Amino acid sequence: MFQFIQQQQDLAVLLTQMEQCSTYALDTEFIKVDTLYPKLGVCQINLNGQVSLLDGTALDLAHFWQKIFDAQQNIFHACGEDIDLIYHYADQKPLGNVFDTQVAMAFLGHGLQVSYQNALKTRLNIDIEKDQTRSDWLARPLTQEQMSYAANDVLYLTKLADALKNDLKVKGLYQYVLEDCQNLTKEIALETPLAALYTDIGNYRHSRRELMQLQQLSIWREQITKALNQPRSFILKNATMIDLVEKNPRNHFQLAQVKGIRPNIVREHGKTILDLSE
Question: Distance between CA 11 and CA 176 in Å, rounded?
Answer without folding.
Answer: 35
